[in-house]
Amino acid sequence: MKQKKISELKDQLNVAGVQLVGVVNETHGVNEFKPFLKGDIYYDIDRKFYGPKERWMPVWLGFLRASTYMNAYRTRDTKGNFEGEGRLLGAVYLINKDKMVYSHLEKDWGDAADINDILNAVKKL
Q1: Residue 41 half-sphere exposure, CB side, CA atoms within 13 Å?
Q2: Which secondary-structure segment (H or E) carries 40?
Q3: Which residues are listed as membrane-spanning (predicted)?
């Protein structure tokens, strides 16, 4: 079963008044990422959004994890260039005004947020 991508929720999020945005830490590859996200992308030059403690995955550790290979297989049809800094782990946040409603912190490369969890959090708004 193919997992839904967060960008496929854009219409549902818009109806709920939720804006889908991306925050990136580098400009390399952003143009290729724009069609995938289908939302605004902001470049955080000072990396303030990534928090006081950035979460990095050492390359050697990433390649030792079975989940890395399972996620690569799961996303094999997603085009990517594998260039740029890939060790900084990402996240998905649902923020309402000044309150964190939902968060998913990537534990492994390609560890995607559960779409149903996101939709359930949106329904609670």
Answers
A1: 17
A2: strand 40-43
A3: none
Q: Compute φ and ψ for 107, nearest 5 degrees.
A: -95, -30
Are 67 and 49 in contact by the 8 Å Cβ rule? The answer is no
For residue 83, the cross-strand partners are none
In angstroms, the CA 72 to CA 111 distance is 10
Radius of gyration of the chain (CA): 15
Per-residue model confidence as pLDDT tens digits over 19-54: 888 888 888 878 877 877 778 899 988 877 776 677
For 8, which DSSP code? Answer: G
pTM of the full structure: 0.68
How many other CB atoms are there within 10 angstroms of residue 109's CB atom?
A: 20
